[in-house]
Amino acid sequence: MPPMPAACPFRGLRLLALALLLVSGGALMAALYAEFALGLEPCVLCLYERGPWVLAALLCAIAFQPGLDASWRRRLLGLCALAFFGNVLLAGFHIGVEQHWWAGTDACGATAAGPGVGSLGDLRAAMSAPAPATARCDTPSWDFHGLTLAGLNLILSLILGGLTGWRVLRRDASHPI
User: Fold this and answer.
1) b/e for 68-81, b at 16 or more Cβ within 10 A?
2) In a 10 Å sphere around its CB, with 0-12 CB exposed, 13-18 middle and 19+ buried, how is residue 2 labelled?
3) What's the angle, vertex CA 38, arms to CA 95 and CA 26, rounded to 5?
4) Contacts of 40 (CB under 8 A, 6+ apart)
5) What is the rounded average pLDDT of the residues 79-94?
6) pTM of the full structure
7) What SS3 state is found at 114?
8) Which of 145, 131, 150 is CA-nearest to residue 40?
């Protein structure tokens, strides 16, 4: 009888950590590709939405370590799920700004009415001020039939946060994922 194969080193929560690390890195690479190769100018909220992806990638990289205790791996992936849900909130706020349901932050660019000009001095100051370094948050740089990058971010973060949270809270160890 042939010898039994060794247990797969990429099972359970460790496999989940690897998958989330690859997806998080892919999402960040896609954002950078869209910015630098396709020329899509990110707004401030777009840049904020990259933060949870970086945090998730770092947490997953730590959770993927082979000698890590399963309880610590579970905690790290739980924090990863919270990062994804935080990104859902950021992306939801961003969608609201894009749809003009509410105003963005002060860093999102000028308001629709433009800068307030009360005198000739105010007008000179507004004209001599440097242009904003980022795009406006209420104007999507890309959309596909109304689905913007913030919408895609919300959907992906919601799916990953839900699956990760479900897997972390599930105590059944008989399944590999």
Assistant:
1) beeeebbebbbbbb
2) exposed
3) 70
4) 34, 141, 142, 149
5) 96
6) 0.78
7) coil
8) 150
